[in-house]
């Protein structure tokens, strides 16, 4: 069974700091990995999608890497801002587990001004 | 594009009542799905559809029914609401269910069953 774990569960950092969020998955047979952002009481916003053949994707201050063989992904946020405060979720898509994304529990990020 | 829209935003039901959560997308996506989000459980797939007229069960389908008569709409029906169905429900869509595409989520429906 595919399981996705995110570490840390919560993180509080001062504004301007660079930070790394970690995601690990138990079965490396994935099609893609997607990082989402969720603001309190809101839906999920897609941040980055990494296909299984890719090593990383970048969007603005965000960089996500994927190491399929070790079952790990990291989301790097550069020069964090208070507006980055949210819950960050990673999810993997594996055909063997049906047509679904398997989600981690998320990392709650707070950036203090 | 409005993207993925869901109605209502909030709903309170009594045990045993039935209702339909609406989901629509205007991106001509073939794949649509319903998830529920519960504290400590993450998001879990309820039902999904790979195209009009085709639906299938996900991880937690009991107590829910779906149909897909058009590409745009994918309603979720609660047949007889139970307190265990108190949750936040998200609808998502994607160009296809092959795993090569991003999934786009709606804003969610917060359901409370008393």
How would you describe what is shown here?
The complex is a heterodimer of chains A (113) and B (114). Chain A has 113 residues and is mainly beta. Chain A has strands at 4-7, 10-14, 19-25, 32-38, 44-51, 56-59, 62-67, 72-77, 86-93, 101-103, 107-112. In chain A, the strands form two sheets. In chain A, strands 2, 4, 5, 9, 10 and 11 form a six-stranded mixed sheet that branches. In chain A, strands 1-3-8-7-6 form a five-stranded antiparallel sheet, with no helix packed on it. In chain A, a hairpin with a 4-residue loop joins strand 7 (62-67) and strand 8. The relative contact order of chain A is 0.35. The mean pLDDT of chain A is 93. Chain B has 114 residues and is mainly β. In chain B, 0% of the residues lie in helices and 51% in strands. Chain B has no helices and eleven strands. In chain B, the strands form two sheets. In chain B, strands 2, 4, 5, 6, 9, 10 and 11 form a seven-stranded mixed sheet that branches. Chain B has a four-stranded antiparallel sheet with strand order 1-3-8-7, with no helix packed on it. The radius of gyration of chain B is 13 Å and the shape is globular. Chain A binds chain B through residues 31-32, 34, 36, 41-46, 49, 51, 89, 91, 93-95, 98-101, 103-106, and chain B through 31, 33, 40, 42-43, 45, 48, 50, 56, 58-59, 90, 92, 97-108, 110.
């Amino acid at each position: 069974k595919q399981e996705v774990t995110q570490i840390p569960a919560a993180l509080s950092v001062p504004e301007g700091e660079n930070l790394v969020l970690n995601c690990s998955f138990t079965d490396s047979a994935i099609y893609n990995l997607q990082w989402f952002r969720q603001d309190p009481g809101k839906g999920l916003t897609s941040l980055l999608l990494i296909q299984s053949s890719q090593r990383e994707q970048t969007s603005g201050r965000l960089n996500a890497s994927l190491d399929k063989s070790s079952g790990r992904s990291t989301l790097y946020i550069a020069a964090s801002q208070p507006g980055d405060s949210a819950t960050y979720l990673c999810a993997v898509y594996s055909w063997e587990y049906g047509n679904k994304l398997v989600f981690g529990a998320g990392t709650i990020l707070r950036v203090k001004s | 594009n409005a993207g993925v829209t869901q109605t209502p935003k909030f709903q309170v039901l009594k045990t045993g009542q039935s209702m339909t959560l609406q989901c629509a997308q205007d991106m001509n996506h073939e794949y649509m799905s319903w998830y529920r989000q519960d504290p400590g459980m993450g998001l879990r797939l309820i039902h999904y559809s790979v195209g009009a007229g085709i639906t299938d069960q996900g991880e937690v389908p009991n107590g829910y029914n779906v149909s897909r008569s058009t590409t745009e709409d994918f309603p979720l029906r609660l047949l007889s609401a139970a307190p265990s169905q108190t949750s936040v429900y998200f609808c998502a869509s994607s160009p296809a269910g092959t795993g090569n595409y991003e999934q786009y989520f709606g804003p969610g429906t917060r359901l409370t069953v008393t």
